[in-house]
Amino acid sequence: MRSASSEAAGPVSTGRARRTGARGSRRAGCAALALLALAVPACGGRDLLFVQDDRLTVLAPENRASAELPVSVRWRIDDFRVVSPGSAPASPDAGFFGVFVDRAPIPPGETLEELAADDPECVRIRSCPDSEYFAIRGAYTTTDTSFTLDSIPRIGTDHGSDVHTVTIVLLDSEGRRIGESAWYAEFTLPNEDGR
Prior knowledge:
Elements: H1 4-9, H2 15-42, E1 56-60, E2 65-66, E3 71-77, E4 81-82, E5 94-101, H3 120-124, H4 131-136, E6 139-142, E7 146-149, E8 161-172, E9 183-190
Parallel strand pairs: 2-9, 4-5
Antiparallel strand pairs: 1-3, 3-7, 5-6, 5-8, 8-9
């Protein structure tokens, strides 16, 4: 127990107290991180699973394989009912597929229209965005478990091969991306010079 006179004189400093203080601030830091980890999901992390989702398996092309046009992308889906857009109530267990070529997919909870949100050209055209608009931007939808790419814009130089990535995500029947799960296939295409 400290006396009133020692409190008035100020804290007593010892080497032992310094180590305890460092340990205490480390504990406080850990506690703050724990609270932050709990708070972050509450701030907009809805529908994020942070677990491995193995419902979809990409069958072709094999990852990092060399391919030729047309490229057939094929996958298998389990525990997900494939339905046409707008044909059923929105559900995390039913919908169709979003396929993205050489681009990031739309964020969870968003629709493909997100890709046109800041495009002033699209705002002026009543039918925009449409499937052609999305295709030019490497974004497609399908109810099939395969998708054929007849052409892919070159992204490399005249020499060597271009590396391309196809990303598949799940969309609910309203076209909103379900969760953060995404499945990838990376493949190479030879450039026009054949290499």
